TrEMBL record:
GO biological process entries: organophosphate metabolic process; phosphate-containing compound metabolic process
Cofactor: how bound: Binds 2 Zn(2+) ions. Binds 1 Mg(2+) ion.
Lineage of the species this protein comes from: Eukaryota, Fungi, Dikarya, Ascomycota, Saccharomycotina
Reaction it catalyzes: a phosphate monoester + H2O = an alcohol + phosphate
Keyword Hydrolase part of the UniProt annotation: yes
Active site positions: 114 (phosphoserine intermediate)
CC cofactor: Zn(2+); Mg(2+)
Family of this protein: Belongs to the alkaline phosphatase family.
One term under GO cellular component: fungal-type vacuole membrane
Protein name: Alkaline phosphatase
Domain of life (superkingdom): Eukaryota
Binding residues annotated for Mg(2+), in chain numbering: 66, 165, 167, 310
Recorded GO MF terms: alkaline phosphatase activity; metal ion binding
Enzyme Commission code: 3.1.3.1
Length: 542
């Protein structure tokens, strides 16, 4: 009977030859099995690497670019290429690490605010605009930072706005409204059921840590209860750095005693375009100080650290429609990201970097059509380079002016020196002469720069634009794991969920532990209505 071999090969296989040498047949089978096993090891090695047990020690560094949308990157990239005379293929550090985008809606609006946006990251759930570490029912939810600390990680927060502002607060406090900054400060220092969860805090916001009647740490305290939380923190073991000189003594993190509280401004640290380097450190310096201090402190630990770093004032530049301030803020953030990536590359601890925005601010458009004919487009980065200060800074200078020649001051100091604008009109001067409110002055000044640069804005608020996700890991298998989860388009809560899984953090368990946290606004409202930048500090009460 013809066998399959006969049909395929045209001849019949001899069964006798195989059966006559049993030892030879067994040897051949053994060789084949060995070859198959060796081949399997090579074939499945990448899979085994990808799904191997994760290293115990790891660092998670989460970046938030508050208010930065994709157009902010385009604006800044072109600006930087122009001022540094770079080729068109030269890009920002962030650009090399783009992996996806995020949808930003909150539980009660298609357009989120920073509080709900940050709570989506910290608690991995959607909540309402204004919520700080609470769910849609105003019940406290466990955060990544808290879960990490309870797992044995060290934790930190680095910002350029108030440390009690929405983003850092959402990782370290639980309040019904973002404006409860006095109470947020208490939570951050450990006055709630979990005790102290933060090991390092660097930023502004000193005003919410002492009262106006206490001059030891300044003269602009706004606490209504008369407490001095800075003094109390020092008594409880916190080290404190409250100015540039004290910050420099930290030696970029090499001389830090944890826990560290560093409040470098009463309110927000100035825009980078206005920042006096002798008075305020850069975000890059803050970030290096944090990663160095936390890394040194965990050197002999089997756990690493969780650190949140925020490019906070990108958002403020968007709210104010200030393109000159915006590009400098993005560049400052990019430098910080680059420095932290270098830290990760040099670290022998598995370290991941994830960066995204809570939302876009300003509805930024990088160019305008300048005529009716198609295509007449323009955008001129040189006008952003000409501006030496933000509209916010110049507006405060104008409001504070007490001289006798306001018109000349506007022409020479505001327009020509401050904004680099020479083609202003008498009507421009007249308009500023009539304005007395800081916000109105800012709008006029920033509009003059935007119009000349052909940069457009659609709102002074937030937009629903998807925002970018960037990531980096210093281990290949971890990098693959990040891509598996975050490549493509995702809801913002998925970023929080990934970090929780990566840290092996049980947010549900932490939520049970924070249930009794005091989070109502009653009795903890700051006495101030707004700060010097016009940011509202107290919510309307029913």
């Amino acid at each position: 009977m013809a066998t399959e071999n006969t049909r395929l090969l045209g001849r019949q296989t001899s069964k006798k030859r195989w059966s006559s040498s049993k030892p030879a047949r067994q040897l051949l089978i053994a060789i084949l099995i060995v070859l198959l096993l060796v081949q399997s090891v090579f074939l499945f090695k990448p899979v085994l690497q990808k799904h191997s047990a994760p290293a115990k020690k790891r660092n998670v560094i989460f970046f938030v670019t508050d208010g930065m949308g994709p157009a902010s990157l385009s604006l800044t990239r072109s600006y930087r290429q122009y001022i540094e005379k770079l080729p068109i293929d030269d890009v920002l550090t962030l650009d090399h690490h783009l992996i996806g985008s995020s949808r930003t809606r909150s539980s009660n609006s298609l357009v989120t605010d920073s509080a709900a946006g940050a709570t989506a990251f910290s608690c991995a759930l959607k909540s309402y605009n204004g919520a700080i570490g609470v769910d849609p029912d105003k019940q406290p939810c466990g955060t990544l930072l808290e879960a990490a600390k309870l797992e044995g990680y060290l934790t930190g927060l680095v910002v350029t706005t108030r440390i009690t502002d929405a983003t850092p607060a959402s990782f370290s406090a639980h309040t019904d409204y973002r404006f409860q900054e006095d109470l947020i400060a208490e939570h951050q220092l450990g006055e709630y059921p979990l005790g102290r969860m933060v090991d390092l805090m660097i930023g502004g916001g000193r005003t919410h840590f002492y009262s106006g009647s206490d001059s030891q740490y300044g003269s602009r305290g706004t606490r209504a209860d008369g407490r001095n939380l800075i003094k109390e923190a020092e008594k409880n073991g916190w080290s404190y750095a409250g100015n540039r000189q004290q910050f420099d003594q930290l030696q970029l993190g090499r001389n830090v005693t944890l826990p560290l509280l560093s409040l470098l401004a009463d309110y927000d640290i100035p825009f980078d375009i206005d920042r006096d380097d002798s008075e305020y450190p850069s975000l890059e310096e803050e970030a290096i100080t944090a990663v160095t201090a936390l890394s040194d402190a965990t050197r002999n630990s089997d756990k690493g650290f969780f650190l949140m770093i925020e490019g906070s004032r990108i958002d403020h530049a968007g709210h104010q429609n200030d393109p000159a301030a915006q590009v400098r803020e993005v560049i400052a953030f990019d430098k910080a990201f680059k420095a932290v990536k270098k830290f990760a590359d040099n670290s022998d601890v598995e370290t991941i970097l994830i960066s995204t925005s809570d939302h876009e601010t300003g509805g930024l458009v990088t160019a305008k059509q300048i005529g009716k004919d198609y295509p007449e487009y323009a955008w001129y980065p040189e006008f952003l380079d000409n501006a030496k200060h933000s509209g916010e800074y110049l507006g405060k200078q104008l409001v504070a002016y007490k001289g006798n020649d306001k018109r000349s001051f506007i022409e020479k100091e505001i327009f020509e020196k401050g904004q680099g604008i020479q083609d202003y009109s008498p009507e421009d001067v007249d308009e500023l002469m009539k304005l007395s409110q800081g916000g109105d002055i800012n709008d006029k000044l920033n509009g003059m720069v935007s119009d000349r640069a052909q940069v457009g804005w659609t709102t002074h608020g937030h937009s629903a634009v998807d925002v970018n996700i960037y990531a980096y890991a210093n281990r290949r298998e971890t990098w693959i794991r990040i891509l598996d989860r975050l490549q493509g388009n995702h809801e913002n809560i998925e970023i929080g969920k990934f970090m929780a899984e990566y840290l092996e953090a049980d947010l549900t368990q932490v939520t049970e532990m924070v249930k009794k946290t005091k989070h109502s606004p009653k009795g903890v409202i700051s006495e101030s209505i707004s700060d010097e930048y016009g940011h509202i500090l107290t919510p309307p009460l029913n």
